[in-house]
Amino acid sequence: MGRQIIFAVLVLFLFICPLPAADLNLNNAPTQVYFSPNGGCTKAIVKEIDNAISEILVQSYSFTSEPIAKALVNANKRGVTIQVILDKSQKTEKYSLAIFLANSGISTYIDSIHTIAHNKIIIIDKETVITGSFNFTSDAEEKNAENVIIIRSKELAAIYIDNWNKHKQHSEKHVPED
Question: Any idea which residues carry the catalytic annotation?
Answer without folding.
Answer: 118, 120, 125
